[in-house]
Amino acid sequence: MTKPVSGKQVDKVFRAIAYACGILILVVLGAVALFLLFRAWPLIGGDQSAVSETISSFTGGKATNFWAYVGPLLFGTVLVAALALAIAFFVAIGIALFISHYAPKKLAAALSYVVDLLAAIPSVIYGLWGGLVLVPAIYPFWNWVATYLGWIPIFAGPAANPSRTVATVAVVLAIMILPIITSITRDIFLQTPRLQEEAALALGATKWEMVKLAVLPFGKSGVISASMLGLGRALGETMAVLMILSPGLKYSFRLLQASQDQTIAANIAAQYPEANELGVSVLIGTGLVLFVITFLVNFLARKITEKKAVK
């Protein structure tokens, strides 16, 4: 007769599997970091004159050392991602609140389905739409902005036509990360304790006051985490940026002019097909910088959410 498995044995097995899964994540992260460092090593310890020649060939002589090369790329990456997050953040919060607390159930269910569907669309589709539809369609608006708000340095004109600029790319990336932030934020808002909401309403609060006093404070740390996930996708986005942006190698805040900035991921995709072995090492070195920046952003978000949780 087979001896029945005890609950303690099952608990031990489950704990071992959970530990193994957690350690696997660390192993994968370490393996990625080691791979990037190993492949970028010729850039660090190799012939620096050859490295300078390779970087010069990538930039048309505009840069000859690695940090002069990766600096503008890093600046462009952070600028585009930050603009995308600034555009998407408040819109995503508004959509999430509407779905979770204002919309009728049938409409909320339909909107939730649409949001989840948008999050699953490949980035190349957004890139095609942005390059073929948005770029020509948005030029009149950017031209109006440059005409009437050009006294603000970031909107200085003339607006590029076609609008293959940082501003257009930021709009496309904002649309890409909008469903990610919305989906996570919606689920967090729906988890707000019902008793807290009812208590606020019972004390005479309006619907908005209840949201401000109960829902938003409860979901604050989750909203920050959702925003950082969206920012992480924007930092690493490749195809949409490659298909829309007219690249440059400058430290420029001129959002409406072409050939100003470029991102690390799009630059790797553009340069990789024609790069030699040392050129690939240089590109992987820029990827290592992006990896570190993304890791630091997520680490910072984790620390912020931990502080919010403690409070």
From TrEMBL:
Signal peptide: none annotated. It is a multi-pass membrane protein. GO terms for cellular component: plasma membrane. Gene3D superfamilies: MetI-like (1.10.3720.10). GO terms for biological process: phosphate ion transport. The chain crosses the membrane at residues 16-38, 66-99, 111-129, 141-159, 166-185, 280-301. Residues 74-301 form the ABC transmembrane type-1 domain. InterPro entries: MetI-like, MetI-like_sf, Phosphate_PstC, Phosphate_Transport_Permease. Keywords: Cell membrane, Membrane, Phosphate transport, Transmembrane, Transmembrane helix, Transport. One of its GO terms (molecular function) is phosphate transmembrane transporter activity. It is found in: Cell membrane. PROSITE patterns: ABC_TM1. Pfam families: BPD_transp_1. Part of the binding-protein-dependent transport system for phosphate; probably responsible for the translocation of the substrate across the membrane. Belongs to the binding-protein-dependent transport system permease family. CysTW subfamily. This is Phosphate transport system permease protein. It comes from Bifidobacterium choloepi.
